[in-house]
Amino acid sequence: MTSSADTHPVLARPCSPLLRESLPTNDLGEIPTATPWCQRWRERRHSFRHTGAGGFDPRHYIVEPLAVRTAKEFVLRHHYSGSFPSAKKTFGLFNISEGEPRLSGVAVFGLSVSRAVLERALPDLEPNVAALECSRFVLLDECPANSESWFLARTFDALLTSDVRGVVSFADPVPRRTITGELVAIGHVGTIYQASNATYTGRATARTIKLLPDGTVLNDRSAQKVRKQEQGHEYVEAKLMALGAPAPRAGCDPALWLRDALHAVGARNLRHRGAHRYVFRLGKNQRERDRIALGYQGLKPYPKRPDFCD
Fold it and tell me: pTM for the full model?
């Protein structure tokens, strides 16, 4: 069995016997809640922190609202998806242990692609106003174990003061690789949400996704931007051209160009069983939280392992 120190440089240093526990496997996306590992990111590559390492001191961190532009730069640089969603509330986790605040994590809460996603999960709350989607949550590998639950709790406190009463978040359990086989998305089961007592409400709708050669996904909304030449289509087209697609010719049909571009770059179809859906009801106390209706039945047990894929 390969040790974590052999495969994860951030763990390759002397440590106690507890911290020498091996990661279950290099390709395991997100360590199940039954095991003591926390995931971290840098430059779109994952690593892990052992909860036994400790080290988190809330006196060394603050959470502040963050400019969308700053949040976007951070997410695009570090998150495996390489994309940034529509954002309404963005927060930064700042390390202040050395005096000058250093951005170490970002949480993004924004508009769902479809209002129905929020309406079905939280039927009593106005979608995209009182209910938001947590679409990105990224911590750098410098953050100690257990940082994420503290960060998430502080963002919920801030949302509550701005009359947000519900949050829906999805964990994508499907690992993804580049066309050359490099693992870029490792499969999430929602460990942080489980640790924060979210209500698990099952999976979103199964579908077929379009996987690009760099391991990222061209989602339906991005494809529609190209077909209809809506705002943001230039970014999608530039990404495809960077992967080897020809530039659109003047007067060409955008839908036909997209079809040919996807063929040119070698995009693949991947059957997706649906992301895991979690719901948070926000309130000052349990009574306030219980008053918020759930559109789905809460399910137990929590999912523990990522999906398998070809």
Answer: 0.78
